[in-house]
Amino acid sequence: MIGFLSLHRLIPYHYTMHFCRNLLLSFCLLNQAVFASVKMQPVDSLYKTKDLQDVIRSFVKSKGDADTAKSHSNLSFFPSVGYTPSYGLELGLVLSGGENHGDPANTTFSIFNTNIFLSTNGLASAEFKHNDFSNENKWNLQGDYEVGRTIAMDYGLGTGRPHQGDDSFVLNGLPVTITPDVMPIQYTYLKLYEKVYRKLFDDFYAGMGVIVDGYQDIDRPRRGAARRRSYNVMYSIKNGYPLGGYWANGILFNLQYNTRDHPNRPYKGIYADVVLRLNSETLGSEHNATQLKTEFRKYWSLSSANPEHVLAFWLWGDYLLKGSLPYLELPGTGADADERGGRPYTIGRFKGTSFYFNEIEYRYPITENKLLSGIVFVNAQTGSNQQNIHLFERWNSGEGGGLRLLFNKYTRSNICMDYGVGNYGARGLFVALNETF
Questions:
Q1: Cα 275 to Cα 267: distance, rounded to the nearest angstrom
Q2: Domain spans, the chain
Q3: Taking a C-beta distance cutoff of 8 angstroms, is the pair 127, 12 a contact?
Q4: Burial code of 239-264, b = ≥16 C-beta within 10 A, e = fewer?
Q5: What are the backbone dihedrals phi and psi of residue 317, each rounded to the nearest 5 degrees, phi first?
Q6: Nearest 5°: phi and psi at 238?
Q7: What is the pTM of this model?
Q8: N or C end of the chain, less CB within 10 A?
Q9: Could you report the per-residue pLDDT of 189-235, keeping only the tens digit for each?
Q10: What is the rounded distance in angstroms from the CA atom of residue 280 to the CA atom of residue 290?
Q11: Which residues form the Bacterial surface antigen (D15) domain (predicted)?
């Protein structure tokens, strides 16, 4: 435990990708540093498609140089820098990449993402995620390893309820101003999971996994009215959780169906995942709990000539079947695996003992060379509390649009810039790498 608490200067990545620190010029300059790690590929079937690396090459190489896959890297590397009053000066580094571990005709592209962040206010994070497929997709390994100290904005439980401060502008899931009745919760955390899937037959997998979620050194209002109004304190006392920290560790049982043509930016296919999570006191959890997690994604390519015209549909749910969860483990806005769901709201703006989210998005190319494209989206979310708000009873919606800059055409990575509006005056700008889903 002492070793874990010594990590109190770390914080997760999803609060650090503020728009002001995504400097496109830096993307261009530092992306050149990874060109030397290029994997040799025999044929460039995407020579008519232009990405950011092609744009850079057009300035630094002669016109006679061929546009081939040999001059591209499967790595995307860029820095981030910015400033907010809560976090101080922020410096970050993002590395994303992937490769095929078998025949591309029958093996899904494997991907990974690494994020490191530091701030002058003593906040930082380290995160590594991977999704690997063996030859012919016989095995699929998915993992996530995170350690950090972060600040969560606490708006209470349930959907369909306005809150003072809802009209604050949101940058990448974080409000730029914090009103007095929004309770920031600062805490140290360690999160990891590893899931192993075995292919049973075409596109269908089954597997198991382990998950560890630890929350320690949780700051809380010390006394008076602020403490009495703290949703975290009230919930923890009611459900028998220590106020300073707790663990939620368990075993995962998984079923998955996957026909997507690419994990970063699918043009077609289906992804369905069902997970039964069993938190156990035997494994160190504060309380036993049983959760059912479901996810369904469907992609329709609307044009054979331009497959980038895509209609995408996303359903995500997390249902508490038995027992109880610690407050910081409750599902909500941005609680999906990539922490991207729920634009335009603050991460954690809505949450509940059970939570459901859906979204539909239309993606379309803008330029003929596919360098620039766009999207429009509509979504809705609903959550329950432990009192009078039930799942599917009250909803909050969001809608908006955005632009995509193709970052690496061989890994289908792109830079996403989205603006959305929602209920109660919510509005926000979101900048990230790769599609929301």
A1: 25
A2: 127-433
A3: yes
A4: bebeeebbbbbbebebbbebbbebbb
A5: -145, 150
A6: -60, -35
A7: 0.81
A8: N
A9: 999 999 999 999 989 999 999 999 999 999 876 555 555 568 899 99
A10: 9
A11: 239-420
